[in-house]
Write a structure and sequence with these properties.
globular; about 350 residues; Rossmann fold; alpha/beta; about 40% helix; about 15% strand
């Protein structure tokens, strides 16, 4: 049970894992509210769209939940992600005597604290209460040690398994030949309209770099309509149609910048490393699964544009350091794959069926 199948990290994780579970002989269904499917590729699991289509993503939640409760097929286990769906899964599971698992991919309790999506104080308080209930007295699978700590800190159950994400080496791999040398550094980032992704802080940092007369240009990869007008430097917004084009945008760059306030895992920096890029990243929590400051990345505190600017300046200046970080990043990537993630995910689901 999921809120959508958009081109976002959570949906991509669901498709990657469910595809591999189907390959291993399991039957897998993905339930979402109707009209919330925008991934540009098909998945092997059966997608069940529930309820009438609703334009508003907020109102799609209650409409979809109501339909999901009645359309659940015969299954051995229910896996849900995001608090409303996790609570519904637990209720339906008790009613039909089916084990349930909450797959937590981020700090669910504080996910909307930036007010980008939920602006009403009362609704935000209601959501936090719902989120805390969804992680208490229920089996949890999480995607990083940081997410596990956040769950326990909010009174949640100790997770039964940590399943880090992976990347697809058939799509995300380095260039065969080096980029043509240019006087202008080629930077790339992922942008979202939500504040906690840190795009505003990144633009502020790069404005500082620009004022110091460092030559660079930034490519922002996003599916959102973003306001990039505060940027005082060359910037381009691109919208890849699929992961193949996303990887090409990575490979045509030299430095990936990750500026989130927090992340449950953070796949883009890992995928960028797999494409041979050096990475500057904020210490956003879940990225600690694969990023190590000074070893395979430069890490700075979140929401500190001046510190981020200095880190970017150093790597624009120092091509040798960029090369060292990129090489170590490629070595790190070998420790993460979707096959390994599926091994852990499959083992956790078998444990849940046997013990719950």
């Amino acid at each position: 049970m999921l809120p959508n199948l958009h081109l976002t990290g959570g949906a991509r994780v669901a498709v990657e894992l469910s595809d591999r579970m189907v390959e291993r002989g399991h039957r897998f269904h993905i339930m979402i509210p109707s009209g919330r499917r925008k991934l540009p590729w098909l998945c092997r699991a059966e997608v069940i769209e529930c309820g009438p289509p609703v334009k508003s993503p907020l109102f799609a939640v209650p409409v979809g939940l109501t339909a999901m409760a009645t359309r659940l097929p015969r299954v051995d286990l229910i896996v849900a992600s995001m608090p409303p769906y996790a609570l519904l899964a637990r209720k339906v599971g008790r009613w039909r005597r089916i084990p349930t698992v909450n797959y937590v991919l981020n700090d669910d309790v504080h996910f909307f604290d930036d007010r980008s999506f939920i602006r009403n104080v009362w609704m935000l308080s209601l959501y936090r209460s719902m989120a805390r209930r969804s992680i208490r007295r229920t089996p949890l699978i999480v995607n990083s040690h940081w997410t596990a700590v956040r769950c326990v800190a909010e009174g949640g159950s100790r997770p039964m398994a940590i399943v880090p994400h992976g990347f697809n080496p058939d799509i995300f791999y380095p260039r065969e030949t080096p980029l043509e040398p240019e006087d202008t550094a080629r930077l790339v980032t992922i942008g979202r309209h939500v504040r906690w992704k840190g795009l505003a802080e990144l633009i502020e940092a790069l404005n500082l770099v620009h004022r110091q007369h460092y030559p660079f240009r930034l490519r922002v990869i996003s599916q959102d309509e973003l306001d990039l007008s505060p940027a005082q430097f060359p910037v381009e917004l691109v919208k890849p149609v699929d992961d193949l084009e996303l990887a090409e945008f990575y490979r045509s760059s030299e430095l990936f910048i990750h500026s989130s306030w927090f992340e449950g895992f953070g796949m883009p920096p890992l995928e960028a490393q797999a494409c041979g890029l050096a990475v500057v990243a904020t210490d956003s929590g879940g990225v600690r699964e694969f990023l190590r400051d000074g070893d395979n990345a430069v890490m700075v505190p979140p929401r500190e544009p001046r510190t981020l600017a200095r880190a970017i300046q150093r790597l624009i200046e120092d091509a040798d350091q960029r090369g060292r970080l990129a090489a170590r990043g490629l070595q790190t990537c070998t420790e993460f794959s979707w096959e390994l993630a599926t091994d852990r995910f499959e083992a956790a689901l078998k444990m849940a069926i046997e013990t719950c």
